[in-house]
């Protein structure tokens, strides 16, 4: 009889990203992978929605300026499909109007692109991990 060695299961949170800028997408994906996230890149809003349905990620990150379907519209569709889905938007400049629109379309937050990956990581970690207490 052969004894099997059991290895502990490790949980890697999933993240789906859709960016208009492939360089920014690669940089962000690499950063999250180093933090232990399983990252899946989407090329469009519809592709991000498909991945979100199939993979059930903890967080979806959408560029507001996706070429075929804006991140705003994609976020709204995700909210209709799965209201519990955490979606973060990345915008070139965040105004009070954009913050209101983000809430309207069901986004957990909107992050300014120039604040970099660190600001995005802060929002993802805050929005995806349960708080003790």
What is the beta-strand fraction? 15-25%
Spans of at least 5 consecutive residues whose pLDDT stays below 50 are: none
| Terminal CA distance | 48 Å
- What multimeric state do the chains show? single chain
CATH class: Alpha Beta
Mass-distribution shape: globular
Q: Mind summarizing the main beta sheet? A: 5 strands, parallel
Spell out the blueprint of helices and strands.
Blueprint: E1 14-18, H1 22-34, E2 38-42, H2 45-55, E3 59-63, H3 71-81, E4 86-91, H4 96-105, E5 109-112, H5 116-128
Parallel strand pairs: 1-2, 1-3, 3-4, 4-5
Helix pairs in contact: 2-3, 3-4
Written overview of the protein:
The protein has 5 helices and 5 strands; from the N terminus they run βαβαβαβαβα. The protein has 133 residues and is of the alpha/beta class. It has one domain: Response regulator (Rossmann fold, 3-Layer(aba) Sandwich). Helix 3 (71-81) runs parallel beside helix 4. It starts with 13 loop residues before the first strand and ends in a 5-residue tail after the last helix.
